[in-house]
UniProtKB/TrEMBL annotation, chains A, B, C:
Principal EC category: transferase
Catalytic activity: 5-(2-hydroxyethyl)-4-methylthiazole + ATP = 4-methyl-5-(2-phosphooxyethyl)-thiazole + ADP + H(+)
Protein family according to the UniProt entry: Belongs to the Thz kinase family.
Binding residues for substrate: 41, 190
Organism for this UniProt entry: Mesocricetibacter intestinalis
InterPro entries per record: Hyethyz_kinase, Ribokinase-like
A Pfam short name: HK
Alphabetical UniProt keywords: ATP-binding, Kinase, Magnesium, Metal-binding, Nucleotide-binding, Thiamine biosynthesis, Transferase
Primary gene name: thiM
GO biological process: one example: thiamine diphosphate biosynthetic process
Name of this chain's protein: Hydroxyethylthiazole kinase
Top-level taxonomic group: Bacteria
Cofactor(s), by name: Mg(2+)
Length: 265, 265, 265
């Protein structure tokens, strides 16, 4: 498999507007800088429209959303849709409280998303598949992740990315799985959120008809960077969070090509 | 002394709802993951009641509290009291501004706390003992910390944990001190806040009649992890913050048993 | 050149009230602790006046500003002006949206700033010089940075500090440049914001008639710490963020004296 987008992200330095949660702002911004993108962290509705005119992509992450964040998300999302830049949804803990269910429903009704990234529990909720989520963690369920991601992609007309020990990506037709990664990922808060941001960066340099490949490459690059970062760390999750940023900055196409285990389902 | 709770935290992975300040969200979440708990960071009043139905413990930290945070704290705290899960208060800078004094008073009047963790200045304020706090730092005073923590425990019918170079824990009867730790702790923002979160995780797996031991074990485990983390670091507070997360993830009962210096006062 | 202020910051441990953005709170607080100051992170208007009575300096950073933050900034800034403590402005992304332009204008009209620190794009906007900013990054322009910083200093009657690969500092008469630093600085989110906070700490221990030297020393100390931190790191921006905190904690006057490349323009 050929990887083309990392190079483009670095060459074009896409500005990614992140409306994200208060836990992961710093980690997301540093991760975006490391991969070669330019983060713009703003949750203000007052400037949410303006930003879409110079941003290359928008990320909406509902990890912590107060009332004014929702307003900013709606203004930004609709403006991004008008301008035509890609919008990524990260539905953190989407199904676990009535509040999050309502907000997720509203965002999905009013904004067209180019991609949705979540863990198994969040994607199962969006797909209407039964699942036992645990707060913002993936939890447990019997659903087949490849079916879940396929459903999300079809239902919301977007690229679905279900991330976990194995990642599943679908455009509603094709389904691909990526076996790279590390058990240290879920030990670092915001590691899923950063993947959502990196997907946005990749989409920011991709043509509208090649979004499946862009999301696939983003997930593969991230999983490979994590695999490299985890080497020799045992349970040291502090080191992993730091080394993940280093490896994103050091990542080369040749490393991704050599290590990525991508398979069509 | 026997240590039993670290094992239980890892086995039962308690979900800790943290309504905490914007400075320490990431560090607290990563520290909770490292010790074996599942952090749920949310400051939204709209979902504060819902969360208590699947959380095992609630942490309320007033480090930075806007109006909507106060509302979330009150909704969450009362719901947690109804449901019967433990609630921990971290009264950051409690005495230093009129605004914090008012909020602290209101929280203490409307919510029953299972434990209160603070530095000497914050606990002295709660105990009504004169003290020269310095912002959110402990400051200086002549009060006896064992008397202060004893007073807090009696006055608010909870476990008091006064943390500093030496930690003092009391249930209003017994008083214990823990001599482990490191001078690097106060050099890392949120190191006290993370202890508050870990106390909540420990209480989340403890029986209501064994909370003194759970808080004591949480403090001892944390102080020992810090002691291990600080080895050879001189003044390198950046490394300390990271290594503390690593050591929490690597911590074993045997290490705590071998190193903990716990004494009844 | 003689460096006198690092010693004073460590001896007097100035309390710096930071009203700053949600991306950089933890990094700024840890950096302030490392240099020897005491951070107080609060964005609540309700306590913004109280805090000026025990703070030694105030930092106002507009990286992410919701409506209540603006209120806190105005209350705090005016109170700091009345009390006579120094106030630093960090106009993050000042020119890039209408919302930021309005807030910047209002802050500059209602508060007297002792120092303003920004990147080339932000300072060019304040000076009314044409520049192509890119979100919160410096962007590109043809303006001469020494003229820009000189203009900002004259126009707002303050010390201007334009930071980048080379830093420029001016009091409206003298202009100085500092050639130390590292290309890794812009790869770490909040590295400029932390410099703003450290400038505030230095001003908190300086006499009102020596603010130019205090800002100059703060910038030189920070750039030298970054230079030391970057050694051998290649593109490892994760390591750089951490090592910068370490180097601030380990920094000695002799290191600054030996390495600082300060030149009058």
């Amino acid at each position: 498999m050929q990887f083309r987008y990392l190079h483009q992200v670095r060459a074009r330095n896409p500005l990614v507007h992140c409306i994200t949660n208060i836990v992961v702002t710093q980690f997301s911004a540093n991760g975006l800088l490391a991969i070669g993108a330019s983060p713009f962290m703003s949750t203000m509705a007052e400037e949410a429209e303006d930003i879409q005119h110079f941003a290359q992509a928008l990320l909406i992450n509902i990890g912590t959303i107060n009332r004014s964040d929702v307003e900013a998300m709606l203004v930004a999302g609709k403006a991004a849709n008008r301008v035509g830049i890609p919008v990524v949804l990260d539905p953190v803990g989407a199904g676990v409280t009535e509040y999050r269910r309502n907000i997720t429903r509203r965002l999905l009704a009013e904004i067209r998303f180019s991609a949705i990234r979540g863990n198994a529990g969040e994607m199962a909720y969006l797909a209407g598949v039964e699942w036992q989520s645990k707060g913002v963690d993936a939890g447990r369920g019997n659903g087949d992740p490849s079916e879940i991601v396929h459903k999300v992609a079809r239902q919301y007309h977007c690229i679905g990315a279900l991330s976990g020990a194995t990642d599943f990506i679908s455009d509603g037709e094709k389904i691909v799985k990526i076996k790279n990664g590390s058990p240290l990922f879920p030990q670092v808060t915001g590691s899923g959120c950063l993947l959502g941001a990196i997907i946005a960066a990749y989409l920011g340099v991709a043509a509208a008809n090649d979004r499946f490949n862009a999301v696939l490459e983003a997930c593969a690059a991230y999983a490979v960077a994590g695999e490299c970062a985890a080497q020799g760390l045992d349970r040291r999750s502090g080191d992993f969070a730091l080394e993940l940023i280093n490896q994103l900055a050091l990542l080369e196409d040749s490393t991704i090509c050599a290590r990525a285990e991508v398979e069509y389902v």
